[in-house]
Design goal:
621 residues, single chain, six-stranded parallel sheet, 39% helix, 19 helices, Rossmann fold, alpha/beta, Helix Hairpins
Length: 621
């Protein structure tokens, strides 16, 4: 090994000092400036000892040299001998280079500092804020809903950490969400998977954390890595809500996140909602109304005055809120048996338009007994269903359908997907047939005999990107709509789409339900971030076991064409062991944004229901 020379050591040391940034460079510039001033002063004292006139000591000469170095233009006013003028000119010329370099270094250092601030690398000094980790289209839904939830709060803060430019994130969110009201938005650029970047979010003082599933390949691996980074932190973090794209990764994510993490299975939730919407028209709108912060919201109450009262009697306890279930130490139950007695340990679950509206009613309810009808529920018959297109969650959708239908039901799968119909073994009630079909082609759709089916489900084809897939879905819906008009056919249509912006276009097709899976998951994450114990309520609603939401003919409950109050509707449903939470007007079923659905109406307000109207109830199948 060759010996390191002094020159190499000196150069290495100099390179290291130069790489330390702007402060080090300014330090070297100061050293050079001192050297220049000293040399100019020494040459002046040597070559022109008595100049300029009136200067009598070395200190004054040093001051003159300093002024020429910092203000090169002073040389224009100098007078004296050639030697003096030459030395001052050289000093001013050296000062010109030094000042230019100083200005350049300061400008560059300031630019770097501004860029750092622009990227958002300072630690958040907030408390009680909501933290969103990661970036996807769901962030717009979540921020929008949290803004509505925090509308009455003064110092509400939403903090977002993602690998995007700070200003770009703020601009995108404001463009999609609009006015943020009293809520302040704080964005930081960084990796949510890095513990040192998580420090920027001041998690110890946050109220909740939302982890988003990013777009692209293998998003769940990214979510699990964020959960590991949260678990690795020394300090405790607030409750965490995370969305996973695949059910297969739930166990790994639960192990990574620990007990303080609530996991939302996006595939499972979207699949259940698609299936339930295909069975009950308007189900997706009801769920969206319950999940967002616009209309009816779910609250928990512990009224001591209702202890010892049965659940059936508690249904009439509130004038402007609908009781839907009980949260008990043993678990949440929606629409429990009507004779269930409310105890001290129970919380009553209600739907209300605002927290302040949840007040006990005065007096006993007024029920129009003459209007109450106990209509017979027809026995279930084997059905024929049509599934158009195929994607990764289609197998799960078919299996959930199998759990709903009566034995002998038929499901036709028509898709051009190479994996269509694969993996469907062990079905109990469904008979499945698979056909190759271009679902955007009118003649191919007509050859399926769509009019023979009671329900049609149009899935998003995962062979294409989200935008192209939505475009193909719109084409299919338009073809089905035209076929219904021309041929006079009647069947329910539920469609799955990716982009919320396409909902307005899809409304032209008058599909019964349009499920935007990303929007649904975003709404659910926002609800759980605000109120984590609602996870049991929504889990119960999306589960096929127990009571679910059903729009059922109004003629089963009250006399149609007769003016009744919703109190009478609630009583009629109670006598059938069901909980009424609203109704759907057939006249407004195609009018956005609620499509005729009214949740939690005032119980004293009179309504007139016709044969095509529905009562929305929580009931067993």
């Amino acid at each position: 090994m060759s010996k390191v020379t002094f020159r190499e050591r000196a150069r290495y040391w100099f390179d290291n000092t130069m790489s330390k940034g702007t402060a080090s460079l300014i330090g070297w510039l100061a050293v050079v400036s001192v050297g220049l001033i000293a040399v100019v002063a020494a040459l002046t004292l040597w070559l022109a000892p008595n100049e300029p006139e009136g200067v009598g000591n070395p200190g004054e000469v040093l001051w003159i040299a300093l002024m020429h170095a910092l203000t090169p233009s002073k040389v224009a006013s100098d007078k004296g001998s050639m030697a003096y003028m030459t030395v001052m000119f050289a000093g001013s010329l050296g000062g010109l280079f030094i000042v230019s370099m100083l200005v350049g270094l300061l400008s560059n250092g300031l630019k770097q500092k501004v860029d750092r601030l622009r990227r958002g690398r300072s630690r958040i000094v907030e408390s009680g804020h909501t933290v969103v980790l990661g970036w996807s289209d769901q962030v717009f839904t979540i921020v929008g809903e949290l803004v509505k939830a925090h509308a009455s709060q003064k110092d509400s803060v939403i903090a977002v950490l993602a690998e995007h430019d700070k200003l770009d994130m703020e601009e995108d969110i404001r463009e999609h969400v609009g006015d943020l009201g009293r809520t302040r938005l704080v964005c930081r650029t960084g990796r949510p998977t890095e513990p040192r970047d998580l420090v920027l979010m001041n998690l110890d003082a946050a109220s909740s954390v939302v982890v988003l599933s990013p777009e692209g390949e293998d998003p769940d691996a990214h979510v699990i890595k964020i959960l590991l980074a949260l678990a690795k932190r020394d300090g405790k973090h607030p409750p965490v809500v995370a969305a996973l794209a695949s059910s297969r990764n739930i166990a790994a994510a639960r192990l990574a996140g620990g007990q303080d993490v609530h996991l939302v299975d996006s595939d499972d939730t979207a699949s259940r909602l698609i299936v339930q919407s295909s069975r009950q028209s308007g189900m997706s709108v009801v769920c969206m109304d319950l999940l967002n912060f616009d209309g009816g919201e779910i609250y928990m109450r512990t009224p001591k005055k209702l202890v010892g009262v049965t659940y059936g009697d508690a249904l009439h306890a509130y004038q402007t809120a609908c009781v839907i279930g009980l949260r008990r130490p043993s678990g949440t139950v929606l629409n429990p048996p009507m004779d269930t007695v409310i105890t001290d340990d129970d919380q009553i679950i209600v739907i209300a338009h605002d927290d302040s509206h949840v007040r006990l009613a005065a007096g006993r309810p007024s029920v129009d007994e003459a209007a109450v009808v106990m209509g017979e529920r027809p026995a279930p018959e084997p059905e024929r269903m049509l599934l158009l297109n195929w994607n990764g969650r289609a197998e799960q959708i078919v299996r959930y359908l199998d759990g709903y239908v009566a034995p002998g039901a038929v499901l036709e799968i028509a898709a051009g997907h190479p994996k269509a119909g694969t993996g469907l073994v062990g079905l109990r009630n469904l008979t499945v047939n698979v056909k190759d079909c271009d679902t955007t082609d009118r003649f191919a759709l007509e050859s399926l005999g769509v009019g023979l089916f009671q329900h049609v489900i149009v899935l998003s084809d995962d062979r294409f990107d989200a935008h192209h897939s939505d475009t193909r879905t719109l084409m299919t819906l338009l073809q089905l709509r035209d076929m219904q008009s021309v041929l006079g056919e009647h069947y329910s249509i539920v469609s799955e789409m990716h982009d919320e912006n396409n909902r307005a276009l899809a409304e032209v097709t008058e599909a019964d339900d349009i499920v935007i899976s990303d929007t649904v998951i975003g709404l659910l994450l926002a609800q759980l971030a605000e109120n984590r114990h609602l996870a049991d309520v929504f889990g119960y609603l999306f589960d096929s076991r127990g009571s679910e939401i059903y729009p059922r003919p109004a003629s089963w409950y009250v006399k149609t064409g007769t003016k009744v109050t919703f109190t009478t509707v609630v009583e009629a449903a109670r006598r059938r062991g069901e909980t009424a939470i609203g109704y759907r007007s057939s006249e407004a079923r195609n009018n956005p944004p609620h499509y005729g659905i009214v949740l939690n109406p005032d119980k004293s307000e009179p309504i007139v229901m016709n044969e095509r109207d529905s009562v929305i109830v929580l009931a067993e199948r």
